[in-house]
Design brief:
Length: 270
């Protein structure tokens, strides 16, 4: 792998922290500081969580296929896709907003737009509450627990190692944020939605979730988005965030890691 490509991949995280083993391993998705409350009420969040179907039954054909699909990601350890997965582990809004830089041709984390931070912070709470509640549908070990020889792409503490793999909370917030960002910048809706979904895929790359964990988390994120966007508070926050992002895009800043990101997203398991 060329040194220039690796340097560019690291640049995607410029201004935050180093790529390798740089991210904390929380047992829950949460922000580093107190965040605004969720857009949705407790009753709605509980209903969305309860609608999540359980994981594949142990020993079933579905579980076997899931394990085999997970193993195919081992080929990408230490690759560009692996390093992008390390970056995607970051879900604190002021840093995670850079995941969406490349489709927008800007650098949002340089000076995080406050209205956008408020929008992502509130929606993160929706994703956190719903995904943590949904883990009650049935406990499932993470791939790194089922296979002690698997490597995680981030540091893993005991809390994360012992927590439920299904559904993926990162996949939930990624799918939710990707669709929110698609509304913030509709001209790049398809690419922004994909980036959000790739945040979930990165958890399979990292051996922290099975593919079905990711799929269930993404489905929950889509359901959350459909509910959140019906709230007047979201619509007001969206309008303010659109104006901020439009201004940021007009400044002509560029994230130097975008070439590496494109290369990474082109890597898929055979």
């Amino acid at each position: 792998m060329k040194r220039a490509v690796l340097i560019a991949a690291a640049a995607l995280l410029a201004g935050s922290c180093a790529v390798n083993d740089a991210f904390p391993a929380p047992s829950r998705i949460e922000t580093a500081a107190p965040a605004p409350g969720p857009y949705l009420g407790e009753q709605t969040l509980t209903a969305l969580a309860q609608a999540v179907q359980g994981p594949p039954a142990p020993g079933s054909a579905e579980a076997a296929a899931d394990h085999a699909a997970s193993q195919r990601w081992r080929a990408f350890e230490d690759s560009d896709r692996w390093r992008l997965a390390q970056a995607h582990a970051e879900v604190r809004p002021n840093l995670a907003v850079q995941h969406f830089d490349c489709p927008l041709n800007t650098r949002l984390a340089e000076e995080p737009p406050p209205a956008l931070m408020h929008l992502l912070g509130r929606s993160l709470r929706d994703a956190s509450v719903a995904s943590n509640a949904a883990k009650a549908v049935g406990f499932r070990n993470r791939p790194i627990v089922d296979d002690p020889d698997r490597r995680a792409c981030i540091r893993v503490d005991d809390d994360l190692r012992s927590s439920a793999s299904y559904p993926s909370g990162h996949a939930t917030v990624g799918a939710l944020w990707g669709r929110i960002m698609a509304e913030v910048a509709p001209d790049q809706a398809q690419t922004l939605t994909r980036i959000g979904d790739e945040i979930g895929v990165s958890r399979a790359v990292c051996a922290l979730h099975y593919p079905s964990d990711v799929a269930a988390g993404q489905a929950l994120g889509v359901a959350l988005f459909q509910a959140v966007r019906e709230t007047p508070e979201y619509q007001a926050d969206l309008a303010a965030a659109r104006a901020e992002v439009a201004r940021a895009r007009s400044l002509g800043l560029r994230n130097p890691g975008c070439a590496a990101e494109r290369a990474a997203l082109g890597q898929t398991p055979s």
